[in-house]
Amino acid sequence: MPDKTPIDIPAASRRIDGAVHDSRRHESAHKHVSGEALYVDDIAEPAGLLHVQLGLASRAHARIRSMDLEAVRRAPGVVAVVTAADIPGDNDIGAGLRHDEPLFAEDVVQYHGHPLFAVAAETRDQARRAAQLAKVDYEDLPAVLDIAAARVTGTLVTAPMTLRLGDAEAALKAAPRTLSGRIKIGGQEHFYLESQIAMAIPGEDEDVLVHVSTQHPSEVQHIVAHVLDIPDGAVTVEVRRMGGGFGGKETQANLFAACVALVAKKTGRAAKLRPDRDDDIRITGKRHDFEVDYQVGFDDQGRILAADMLFAARCGFAADLSGPVTDRALFHADNCYFYGNARMASLPLKTNTVSNTAFRGFGGPQGMVAAERVVEEVAFATGLDPLDVRKVNFYGTTDRNVTPYHQTVEDNIIGPLVDELEEWSDYRARRQAIRAFNAANPYLKKGLALTPVKFGISFTFTPYNQGGALIHIYTDGSIHLNHGGTEMGQGLNTKVAQVVADEFQVDIGRIRITATTTGKVPNTSATAASSGSDINGKAAQNAARTLKARLVEFAAGHWNVPEDAVAFTAEGVRVGEQVLTFKEVVKAAYMGRISLSATGYYKTPKIHWDRAKGQGRPFLYYAYGAAVAEVTVDTLTGEYVVDQVDILHDCGDSLNPALDKGQVEGGFIQGMGWLTTEELWWDAQGRLRTHAPSTYKIPACGDRPRRFNVRLVQNSPNVEDTIHRSKAVGEPPLMLGISVLHALSDAVASVADHRICPRLDAPATPERVLTTIERLRAQAATGEGMA
Amino acid sequence: MGNRYDADVSRRGVLLGAVASVALTTGAHGGQALSTGGDGAAATSSGPVPVMTPVTSPVKGKVSFTVNGKAETLEVDTRTTLLDALREHLRLTGTKKGCDHGQCGACTVIVDGRRINSCLTLAVMHEGGSVTTVEGLGTPARLHPMQAAFVKHDGYQCGYCTPGQICSAVAVLEEIKAGIPSHVTGDLTAAPQMSATEMRERMSGNLCRCGAYSNILDAMAEVAGLQTAGGPA
Ligand code: FES
Ligand code: FES
C-alpha cells in the first residue's frame, strides 16, 4: 500500500483505486479463479465433526401412525438421532413464527420430502445409509397438490390482499371492448450451485456458532435460538459468501441451521449438514406457480380502461413468505401500464407441496408476466403491434401516473428508454424482415418482441428497510468493514467497499471486507428485495461519515486549522497547507484518544404501506429496463433458439457498471430459463420428479442468446437520494426474460397469420410450444378465436 | 434449447443406466446408487424396502497419483470419488461439489490432459494418473492465463461454478487444438474451428446459475486469441 504521499501534489491529479461508479472487479475475483474462496463446505472441519442427514417423508399428506428409528440408531457410526421430541424450544422454523412450519414433522406429514428426523454419524456415508433404515407407518390423508385442487378446498396459508383503483366493475361494463382469459405461470427451482449447507460449533454455556449459507443471518440466529430455547445473544451466525442465493436462502436455510445447532447442542460436537442436491430440491421451497384470471376493458386504439385480475398461487403447506410474495405479484400486475380502473386480488392457496418461498423478483415477475399477457391479448384483439399497445398504455409523467396501490409514479423513464431501445435494436425493420422470413419459410418461424420492466424497490414489509454497518480503523491505517448484507455473487461487498473508499478517499485495497456476522452488526434484514447496496451502502457511508467527522474535528484542533481546511482527498488528508497520509492522521487521532470505531445506520425514507386499505407508497423508487428478443422456432418439433437479445437497463448512476452488467445478463438468463426450459413436475403422489439438473433444465452456455447486447442507461441518476444516485439491480433484470416468452408467442402466432392470441403459457417448453402451434392451427382451420 | 422434456420412463431409464454403470465399476454399493434423491426417502412399512445392507467394513484401497505436480498416495474406501478424495483427503477444496451426479460440471478437473467430472469417477481408477485442479493451474499471485482472463472479464458472480468452468475452459481449448470434434463440428474430417459456437457447445456441461456465460465466453475467446492464430468466430 503506497502510504508515503508526498506533499503538494496538485489536487485531482490522481483518482483512488475502486472509486464509486468505477467498474471495479469483484472483491473475491482472485479467490474465485484460484479456488481459494471459502464456502461453508470448504471451512476446515473441527475435530470430531458429525455429519448429519435428514430422514424424509415419502407421503404428500399423511398421519404418522408410528416411526421406528431403532435401526437408524443402531446403524454403524451413528452418534445421535433427533426428532421433534428432542427440540428443547419450539418446533418451528417458519419465517413469521406462525407455527405452521415445523423443523421435524410430528403427527402429520405435509409434503413429500417433509423432514421427519435427523441422524448424525461419524461419516457422511454412514449418516446417509442410516437415514434409509427408518420404518414409518403412515395413514394417508387426502392430498391437495395443485392450484385447481386447492381452489376447491379453498384453504389459504395467509390473508389475501386486494388493490382497488377507480371502479373496475363499472369501467369494464362501460368499456367499448372487453376480453377475459387465464394464464398459467410455472414455478422455478433456485438451483443455487452451492446447495444449502450449515455447520454448527457448540461453545461454552448455551453458545453456538453457526456457519451457514444464508441471505438472512439474523433470522437464522433467531430461529436457532427459538428452537433451542436459548437467547438470541447466545447464537452467532456467520456467512462469508454464498454460492448463489436468488431468494432460495432467504428463509430456506433456517431448517439446516436449526438442525445442526440442535445436533451440536445435543452431542457437544460440531455438526454439518449438506443435503444431497436431490434432497435439497425436494425439501426447499421454490418460486410460486400462479394461475391468473384476467378481464380487461379497452378501446380500439388499444388503450386499457379497466383491469380485473385474480392471482391464485400455489403456496405449499405453510405461509413462509407467501403473503409478501403474492402481494408483490399484485404490485407488479400493472408493470409499466396505467389501467385507470383496476381490481387486483390474491389467492394464496395451501397445498400439500413444499412451501414456496422467495425467488428473485419475489412474485413481481409473475405479476408482470400476467400484465404482458393482458397487453398481448389487447394487441391481438385490436390488430395493433404489441409494442404500440404497450406504448399507448405506459404510465404518464404528469398524469395517468397512479398505480393500483395509489403510489404515484414520479420517476418514470420507460417511454424514452423504450424509444431508445426500439431504435438501437432496429425493432421495426427487423419486424418487417421477420415477417418476410416467415412468409418464405414453411417450417422455421421467427418471432420478435419488446417487453418493458418497471420494478418497485423497497421491502413491502416496511421494518426490513433498515441497515447497519460497522467500521474500525486501525492505527496502521487499515480499515475493517462489516455490514448487515450478505454476499452471494452480486458484488455487494465490492460496492459497499467502494462507497467507504470513496468517503475516506483511500484505495479500496486498504479496506478489509469481512464475513457477515450477527456478532458485529445485529438485527439485520435479509439481503433481498434488491436492497443490499441501497441500505447497507448508506449505512456504511454513515459510519464512515461519523468517523470522518471525528477525524476532522480532531485534526482541526491538533494542527490548529479551521475544520473546513481538513479534507480527505486522493492524495491524502489535507490539513491546512499540508497533506498528511491517512495513516498519519489516524495514528495521531489514536494518540489523541479518538475512537476509531463507528457504527452506521440507515432507514429508507418516504415509504409507508397500509395493507388493509391497499394504499400507500411501498416503494422508494422504480428500476426500469426493456429487452428485445428474437427467436427461431421449428414448428415441426417446437424446439427453438434465441437468436438475439438487446437489452437497455436502468441502474441509475451505477455504483459499478461491470458488476451491474453482469447482474443484468445473469438476471435475464435466469428469467429466460424460468419461462422456457425450467419445468417443475410433480406426479400424482405429490413427488417432485424434476429434482436434479438431469431433469430440471436451467440454461446452459449454449442456451445463451447467439447475439447478446446489453447496455446500461446512461446519464440517468436516481431522482431519489439513494447511495450515489444508483439503483438496485438484483431482481429487475430477471423480468427482461419475459421478452423471450413473447418472442416465442410471436413466432407461434405466425402459424395462424397473427390473428389468434396464442395464449402461450409458461414455461414455454418445446412441448408447450408445439402443442400451442397445433392448437392454433386447429383453431385457424375452424376460425375459432380469430380477431 | 430443446429436448428438455424427460418423460418419466426415459428418466428411469437414465437412472437405471447410471446404477448399472456404477455396479460395473465397483461391483456393489456405489456411492451414487445410494442417493436418496429419486424415490428413496425414508423407507416405509407398506412401501418397498430398499435393499441397503449397511457395509460394515468398507474395502480400502491404495492409490498413488500426481495432483498438481505433487506425488500423493492415499488409502481410501474404494468407493471414494475422485472429488471426495481431493476435497476431503487432500483438502483441495477449490474443486466444488454442485450435484455429485455428473450433471453440473462444478467438479471438473483435468486428468491426464482431459477434463472429467471428478464426482463421476473413483479415485482408485486413477492409479499413476496426473490430476490438475484449479489450485494447480495457478495461484492468486501467479494466475494461469485463463484465470487471469476470468478476472479481467468478470467470468463469475458467486464463484461456485468457477473452478469447474476454468478447468473446463482450459481443456476445451486443448481439445479443439487437438482436433477433437464436438456436436456442432460441421465437417468431421476437417479440424474443428476455434469458434464461439464450438466453445459454447463444449462449455454447456458446466452450468452457471448466475448466468455469467457471456463473460466466461469472452474470457475464453481472449485466451484462445492468444494461443491460436485465428480468433473466435
Ligand atoms: S458435482 Fe460433479 S458434475 Fe456436478
Ligand atoms: S458464478 Fe455462480 S454459478 Fe457460476
Automatic annotation (TrEMBL), chain A:
Residue span(s) of domain Aldehyde oxidase/xanthine dehydrogenase a/b hammerhead: 34-142
Cofactor: Mo-molybdopterin cytosine dinucleotide; [2Fe-2S] cluster; FAD; Mo-molybdopterin
SUPFAM superfamilies, sorted: CO dehydrogenase molybdoprotein N-domain-like, Molybdenum cofactor-binding domain
Domain of life: Bacteria
Coiled-coil intervals: none
Keywords assigned by UniProt, alphabetized: 2Fe-2S, Iron, Iron-sulfur, Metal-binding, Molybdenum, Oxidoreductase
GO function term, MF aspect, one: 2 iron, 2 sulfur cluster binding
Recorded family membership: Belongs to the xanthine dehydrogenase family.
Protein name: Xanthine dehydrogenase molybdenum binding subunit apoprotein
Organism annotation: Nitrospirillum amazonense
From TrEMBL, chain B:
Taxonomic superkingdom: Bacteria
Residues annotated as domain 2Fe-2S ferredoxin-type: 61-137
GO molecular function: 2 iron, 2 sulfur cluster binding; carboxylate reductase activity; metal ion binding
Reactions catalysed: an aldehyde + A + H2O = a carboxylate + AH2 + H(+)
Any one GO CC term of the record: periplasmic space
Pfam families xrefs: Fer2 (PF00111), Fer2_2 (PF01799)
Assembly: Heterotrimer composed of PaoA, PaoB and PaoC.
Function of the molecule: Oxidizes aldehydes to the corresponding carboxylic acids with a preference for aromatic aldehydes. It might play a role in the detoxification of aldehydes to avoid cell damage.
NCBIfam families registered for this protein in UniProt: PRK11433.1
Main location: periplasm
Keywords annotated in UniProt: 2Fe-2S, Iron, Iron-sulfur, Metal-binding, Oxidoreductase, Periplasm, Signal
Annotated protein name in UniProt: Aldehyde oxidoreductase iron-sulfur-binding subunit PaoA
EC number: 1.2.99.6
Annotated compartments: Periplasm
Keyword Iron-sulfur: yes
PROSITE patterns: 2FE2S_FER_1 (PS00197), 2FE2S_FER_2 (PS51085)
